[in-house]
Specification:
By secondary structure, the protein is of the alpha/beta class. Strands 3-2-1-4-5-6-18-19 form an eight-stranded mixed sheet, with helices on both faces.
């Protein structure tokens, strides 16, 4: 079975789906690895490094798609809505595609892949179970996003993060407030603490308080009813607007006192909730910085815009949308480990074996045999009456 790794075509995407270090594990499993020329260069992996580990370099993108049985991509159609259309035309009915595909946000892409007869697995749908931890690419990329959000904030803030004793007196530490203590939020907390900031954090799930405090941050307790705040997968559940209004009212004081606010709240398949209003931004000290990691999904911060720097009321609002691509070496290393682990889970004796009784396979399989088979994606495409 041939596994093909094409160059990513999403604008600004510098990651690659497989790195040279992963190739031996794939070849040991009886797989032949085919790389598009230059696929890894933007991430720091040259063609020679792949061939040294046993991969072959394809004679171009069209040849790779023509020869490969499985295509590994960081961004397949859905997560690459414009340029991914070109790849759709190259797919054969018997091919399998594995990568990020935004199935809950772009379900039509799943239907289009199904119409081509492709079997598609989505990395966003990896179940949150112990057996699948090493496949969890969403967590891997969120780790990078949380880290880079802090670096962006530190670079933008017109003051230093740590407390310093200087010849001019004591410099007080920056105050950082992280909203959302999932993987990205926890990494942001840890990174801000390493830089010497005084950190506070809030999450709608009270269960994460211990994790926040273990990283040296103070947990902000808000007197809200949060009994139904977490789904079975451990993600924060969407709340009604009345809840968010009360939450914003109570958070306003903490936001106003912060030099940096980093928001990370995302609800799978839904627009991001507004957590910081324009009025709350106006209450911050001029020169403060907001980093909205949910900007691509509508944003947690009212004035934020995807991939733009907005100055509102003297406060700088950043809306980065693809921070993992700015650290392509390690992002590719992490993604390659995650996606190859899923692939090897699906392979038996050098061939793809799709066991629909397996929880991981069932949870990640989006399309097969010309149909969209994932229940949540099907429901988005054909809502019940």
């Amino acid at each position: 079975m041939i596994v093909g790794v094409p160059t990513e075509t999403f604008p600004g995407e510098r990651r690659v789906a497989t790195i040279p270090a992963v190739v031996p594990a794939l070849t040991k499993a009886g797989l032949d690895v085919l790389i598009e020329p230059g696929a890894g260069e933007s991430a720091g992996f040259l063609d020679a490094a792949y061939t040294d580990k046993g991969a072959r370099i394809a004679a171009g993108r069209a040849r790779l798609f023509a020869d490969a049985d499985v295509i590994l991509q960081v961004r397949s159609l859905g997560a690459n809505p414009v340029n991914g259309r070109d790849d759709l035309e190259l797919l054969r009915p018997d091919q399998t595609v594995i990568g990020f595909s935004e199935p809950l946000g772009e379900p039509q892409a799943a239907r289009d892949l199904a119409a081509r007869g492709a079997t598609a697995f989505s990395m966003e749908l990896i179940p949150r179970i112990t057996r699948a931890q090493s496949m969890d690419a969403m967590s891997s990329m969120a780790t990078i996003a949380g880290y880079k959000a802090v670096l962006l904030a530190a670079d933008t803030l017109p003051r230093m993060f740590p407390m310093m004793m200087t010849a001019a007196g004591t410099i007080t530490p920056a105050r950082v407030f992280v909203v959302g203590a999932g993987v990205a939020g926890l990494q942001a907390i840890a990174s801000a603490r390493r830089l010497g900031a005084k950190v506070e954090a809030y999450d709608v799930r009270p269960a994460v308080k211990e994790q926040v405090e273990s990283l040296g941050a103070a947990f902000v307790d808000l007197p809200l009813d949060t009994d139904d705040s977490e789904d079975k997968g451990g993600y924060a559940k969407a709340q009604d607007e009345a809840f968010y209004a009360r939450q914003r009212e109570m958070m306003a004081r903490v936001v106003a006192a912060s030099d940096v606010v980093i928001t990370t709240a995302l609800i799978p398949g839904r627009p991001a909730p507004i957590l910081v209003t324009d009025e709350m931004v106006a209450g911050m000290t001029p020169g403060s910085v907001l980093v909205d990691l949910a900007a691509e999904r509508g944003g947690n911060v009212e004035p934020s815009r995807p991939d733009e720097t907005v100055v509102a009321h003297g406060v700088t609002v950043l809306g980065p949308t693809n921070l993992p691509a700015t650290v392509p070496f390690h992002a590719s290393q992490m993604f390659a480990k995650n996606v190859s682990t899923l692939l090897l889970h699906l392979v038996d004796d050098g061939a793809l074996r799709i066991d629909l009784e397996d929880e991981i396979t069932q949870g990640t399989l989006v399309s097969k045999d010309g149909d969209v088979v994932h229940p949540r994606v099907r429901e988005l495409l054909d809502p019940p009456a």
